[in-house]
Amino acid sequence: MKKASVFLADGFEEVEGLTAVDLLRRAGVEVSTISITGRQDIHGAHDIIVKADALFEGRDFSDVDMLVLPGGMPGTLHLQEHTGLQKLLEEQYAKEKYIGAICAAPSVLGSLSFLQGRRACSYPSVEEKLTGAEVVQDSVVADGNIVTSRGVGTAIPFALELISILCGRERAEEIKRSIVFIEAL
């Protein structure tokens, strides 16, 4: 079974984080929500309190196939400032394991130089922080082991792309049909 960790910080965008968790779990991926705050109760950007499955401290991520960063403010800033998470992202990147980031969170990957020479997207106001990337306006971009997406409106396509990577395109299509996802005009 594939494993993914979704990192939560106060001010994370609830739709982006929880859509990834929900759809990955529907696909059969073992997903853990990980708090980087030192407590399990996380306050989302829109005052929704979410209880994380586990705390970052003392957690072993060696068998995790994918790390996922939801956007939101100031959640993205908290993710970027967490030195333990930065180190984990660097280790994951060096092993060419998958990293997904949506909305403002691709800026974290830009600050770590992970987007150098890659196609990437993000929320429009943080595009200048995608250091070294070819910035595109696609809903979702998968380039090597990095997956980026633009925001709340692209949360479902983002999650479906993560499923496609971990479980195959056919499984992503099954989930897409099961949730009656119909792409907008």
List keywords for this structure.
185 residues, alpha/beta, seven-stranded mixed sheet, two-stranded antiparallel sheet, 6 helices, 11 strands, 22% strand, globular
Give the C-alpha Rg: 15 Å
The helix content is: 25-40%
Give the low-pLDDT segments: none
* SS-derived structural category: alpha/beta
Tell me the β content. 15-25%
C-alpha end-to-end distance: 35 Å
The largest beta-sheet arranges its strands as: 5-2-1-6-7-11-10
Biggest β-sheet: count, sense, barrel?
7 strands, mixed
Indicate the overall shape: globular
Number-wise, the strands total 11
Query: What is the N-to-C order of secondary-structure elements (H for helix, E for strand)?
Result: EHEEEEEHHEHEEEEHH
Describe this structure in words.
The protein has 185 residues and is an alpha/beta fold. The protein is 33% helix and 22% strand. It has six helices and eleven strands. The strands form three sheets. A seven-stranded mixed beta sheet has the order 5-2-1-6-7-11-10, with helices on both faces. The longest helix has 13 residues. The radius of gyration is 15 Å and the shape is globular. The N and C termini lie far apart (35 Å).
